[in-house]
């Protein structure tokens, strides 16, 4: 009979492709990890890994077993959580992936509110690129993702709008725009910008807003491209140029050290979505978290509105 623990050892080994790292992650010895894998290989009468020195990789049989093992381990966890929940409590482990800004400024308060209602639910947060967040949810490596751009590549991921993240233009305090406080959209062509990379949700929100004013984003003079909003805010503060960042970042990082510049007739909003894989069976903890998000009485949305209005 298959042992769920052995399947879990297989899953971790398939993820790390290293028996030593697997042993460290599971607090086991390396010989014990090898014995569990060998037992599974004897059970299935086929090799699951190709071993070449210290390196391992999955065989075709190992690749075929991977999604089934994930489902079996997930079902085992669900059974444990179900039996405990029958006693009147919800417990379990959630893995939530998100991109940088939601991970730093949205998720902590969100999870704190959820934890007050469900203190026995443990949560692991992973801040990754949003494409990786979506992939992780689609492949069952994570339970939820916060992201700002939908993708047609992951049809298994059900998403719902979570909140609107205002994107604002900021300038150094001694910049000519700072004295005026508001500019015309066409004046943006005279600025020197520090922007996010083109794959970011912020960049795409800016591009779409500019397109509505018939201003191609490629026509902006871009001095520097940076990979996170905090770096842009600090670069603007140092007087390097102007930039677009989440208002949440400005509120937390440099509210009195940069000038917010309004653009006549333009309001830029980056929509934040939350998603989960609706084709995988949900544990009680996962259902509780999704219902918490979908209920509409989202405490985070009110907090964000309060901070940015």
Helical segment count = 12
CATH topology name of the largest domain: D-Maltodextrin-Binding Protein, domain 2
Order of helices and strands: HHHEEHEHEHEEHEEHEHEHEEHH
In the CATH hierarchy, the architecture of the largest domain is 3-Layer(aba) Sandwich
The residue fraction in helices comes out at 40-55%
Name of the CATH first level of the largest domain: Alpha Beta
Number of domains: 3
The low-confidence parts are 297-309
Summary tags:
alpha/beta; Arc Repressor Mutant, subunit A; D-Maltodextrin-Binding Protein, domain 2
Kindly describe this structure.
The protein is α/β, with parallel strands linked by helices. The chain folds into three domains: 4-84, Winged helix-like DNA-binding domain superfamily/Winged helix DNA-binding domain (Arc Repressor Mutant, subunit A, Orthogonal Bundle); 88-163 and 272-308, Periplasmic binding protein-like II (D-Maltodextrin-Binding Protein, domain 2), CATH 3.40.190.10; 165-270, Periplasmic binding protein-like II (D-Maltodextrin-Binding Protein, domain 2, 3-Layer(aba) Sandwich). The protein has twelve helices and twelve strands. It has helices at 4-16, 19-26, 30-44, 60-85, 100-117, 130-138, 176-180, 201-212, 229-237, 247-253, 284-294, 299-308; strands at 49-52, 55-58, 92-98, 121-127, 144-147, 157-172, 182-183, 192-196, 221-226, 242-246, 258-263, 268-277. Strands 3, 4, 5, 6, 7, 8, 9, 10, 11 and 12 form a ten-stranded mixed sheet that branches. A two-stranded antiparallel sheet has the order 1-2. Helix 8 (201-212) links the parallel strand 8 and strand 9 (221-226). The protein is elongated, with a radius of gyration of 24 Å. The termini are far apart.
